[in-house]
Amino acid sequence: MNVRLPQMAFLAALLATAHAGENRANGNYREGTPRNLRAFATDQMDGCLKKVDEIVNRKEEKLKLHEELWDQQWEYDLTNWATWMNQLEESYKEKAGLLAETQAWRATQEAFFNQVRADGHRILYWRGKLRVDTIFLKNDTDDYKDRVEHLFRDLDDVEEALDDAAKVVGDKDVSVADLDKHIQSLDVMFRAAQAVGDNLQMTVDSVEKHHGLKAPKLPKDVEAILARWEAPKETYPDIMQRWTSYLTAWAKLQRKDWTAFGKARKDFDEAYGPVVSGKVCDGRKRFKGVKYSDYGNVVDAMRTNVRAWRLKMRRRDTDISVLRKALEEEKRISAEEKKQYKALFEPYSASKERELRLASARAAGGVSGVRDAQLKAARAKPGSEEEKKYRKLADDIENFRHPDQIAADKALADFKKGEAEAIRKARDLMDKRKRRRAKLGLTEDFD
């Protein structure tokens, strides 16, 4: 790209370009002369750079992709440029020295055009995404309060319930009825705390998916392009300044967009950073350092303490640590039973039953199978083996004796038998559970 032209050819190129506008204004073009052909070619690219400059300066985000318009304009003008340059080279075919100089000059210009075209396509594609990302960052920053801050109000309620419950643990004058009210309140707050933790984690996941957890760096290839554009004299010493001046202006526009993105990202990180880091609730004594997935456990621990104190009111001779340990063990057993209960009914869903009943009704063609067999029997020769075969088939289907029907009915019967057995096992499980948990003052319900 830094190959210099012979001095004579370079001056000739500049003179031809300088006279182009004057010749057109005075109507002095003489078709086919070398000077005019060179002027036509340079004028073509003057117009090209002016038009692509308009594309670079567009601010719309929802129009046709800018890089597509960019490519179309370059394709059109470079095709015309090649036409003029081919004619110019043809005019010098008898002049080897001028032809060589012209070809060298052309190669330098075309190398410039092709690199600018490729660089511009990359920049416009990157810039389009950057502008969209900037808009989304601003929108998400504006939505922070609606998305996150209401969760903190829910945590206020949770913490208030936890503080109230903590006061009754160890209070020998508290009634069982009051303890039950606290337990019921903590049941609600358990779900509320879980919901807050889940929502905060979903926010982190959303940030990671749509924006990344850390601000992106300027892509290396984009940085390299901007560096070329910001130093056009050094990068393209043999290209006319009126062409390279566009590059400097374009680089400033891209830096401006990058700066706007950086500000939007900074504002976004200031809003969501505490959520992403997991420290958004570190100012709350009960949730400091707690993982979002464990928010429900904070409430559950207090609920266990209240339940243990409730038991202590009935078993005054039993140490509360023993009662708390028993409740923790019950929690473990209950979690296993919940899995067992769910596994019992997983194979016996309503949708599976509908599927089997439909298969039974359609086995061997169902009503349509009967009708089809009857039609074939009617078309067969009377008394023939074929007629007998189809009449038997129709009779078997109609009376549910066809092998496919028998198999389908068996599958449905096995399903109902298995479902009944699952219900029996579930009932046994719940009866044992009820008796065991009653000793701890707990209902048989799953948490």
Describe this structure in words.
This protein starts with 6 loop residues before the first helix and ends in a 9-residue tail after the last helix. The protein has three domains: 135 residues; 173 residues, no CATH class; 92 residues. The chain contains 15 helices and no strands. It has 447 residues and is an all-alpha fold. Helix 2 packs parallel to helix 9 and helix 5 runs antiparallel to helix 6.
Give keywords:
3 domains; flat; 447 residues; 79% helix; mainly alpha
Sheet bearing the most strands, described?
A: none
Approximate shape: flat
- Tell me the domain tally: 3
- The arrangement of helices and strands along the chain is HHHHHHHHHHHHHHH
Strand tally: 0
Structural class of the secondary elements? mainly alpha
Average of the residue pLDDT scores: 88
Radius of gyration: 41 Å
Discrete helix count: 15
Query: For the terminal residues, how far apart are their CA atoms?
Result: 73 Å
In percent, how helical is the residue content? over 70%
